[in-house]
Amino acid sequence: xxxxxxxxxxxxxxxxxxxxxxxxxxxxxxxxxxxxxxxxxxxxxxxxxxxxxxxxxxxxxxxxxxxxxxxxxxxxxxxxxxxxxxxxxxxxxxxxxxxxxxxxxxxxxxxxxxxxx
Length: 117
Prior knowledge:
By secondary structure, the protein is mainly beta. It has strands spanning 3-7, 10-13, 18-25, 33-39, 46-51, 58-60, 68-73, 78-83, 92-100, 103-107, 111-116. It is built from no helices and 11 strands. Strands 2, 4, 5, 6, 9, 10 and 11 form a 7-stranded mixed sheet that branches.
């Protein structure tokens, strides 16, 4: 079973950037598609971005398309989420997940991202 630990969250002003990292252990991520999800206070967890284990495709929520980029380094067993042009509505706890297709199977503990206006 893979274990996931997110890092890189914090407080940033609107228009700023953050890079989240998701370090995996216990199993290589090369056999998983990996995704990022987020949950804002009082809202349900929502999809943000996902790649495919083969590295051929990436998918994004409309709300982040053009601003966020998912990438991975299989040698480091780590997935990243580069977030640019951040908006206050991006404030949420961000979760990394190992997915099978689009279905999350293993979750990290989350990292808080707060964007001030």
